[in-house]
User: Fold this.
Amino acid sequence: MSERIFSLASLTVLELSPPEMVEVAARAGYSHLGLRLVPATPEEHHFPLVADTGLRRQTRDRLRDTGVRVLDVEILRLKPQTRISDFEAVLAVGAEFAASELLVAGNDPDEARMTDNFAALCDLAQQYGLHPHLEFMPWTDARNLEQAVRVVENAARSNGCVLVDAFHFDRSGSRLEDLAKVDPARLRYAQLCDVAGPCPDDMQEILRQARNERRFPGEGDCDLAGLLKCLPPELPLSLEIPTVQLLEQGVSALQRAQMALDATRALLARI
Assistant:
C-alpha cells in the first residue's frame, strides 16, 4: 500500500513565510504542503510569492533541500467580473512549484456564469498540469457539496474536481450519502480538520470559526470516520486547522503542525 500523502495547509501556520513553512513541514514529518499564492481576505497577512522572485527562489531552495513537495496552491475566486486570463501568472507559479492541485472558491451568484468560468479555468490550468478544485463553503455561492458537484459536472472538464473540507462539509449540512455517489475521479485530495459544537445560526460566526477555531481530527464532533469512508482510499489529506487560541498561547507553528499530523494519524489508526 502506498504511503498516504499528508500536506500542511497554509491556514494552519499562516504566520510563517513560505520558506519557514517548508522547514516546519519537513521537521513535523509532512511529505507535502500547500502554498497560498493569493490571500483569502484583504486583511490576511500575506507573503507575495507571485510577485517576489527572490522569495520564490528561497522557497524552491528549501523544497529542494528538504524533499518536501507542493500539493496545492490557493486561492482563486470566481467572481462576476472574473477574467480567467488574469489568473495565468498564478497558474504559472503553481506549475513552477510542481503543484498538481488548485483551490478555487465560487463567489458568483450566477451559477451558469460560475460554471462557464470554472470550465475556462480548467482549460487554462490544463496547460500548467493543474486540477482546479471547487471548494464549497456555506457563505460562498458554491455553498454545499451538491452545488459544487453540479457546477463541476456541468463544466464537464476532465481536470475539474470538488474539494471536500471537513469543516465546510459539516457546516453546510452536506450529506455522506451524497458524497458516496461522487465520481472518485472528481476527488483528488481533501482537507481534514474537526469542528466542535452544533452549527451556529449566524453565518459570520461560522466564518469566524472556519478561519480561527477548528479542532484537530478526533477532538471535535464531526463524523470524520464516516467522511473518510466515503472518500477514495488513500486520498491525499491537506491538514487545514487554524487554531488562533493556541497561537495566542504561544504554541509554535512546528508544535501545531505536529499536533495536527499526530491527531490525523491517530484517527486513521482508529478507523
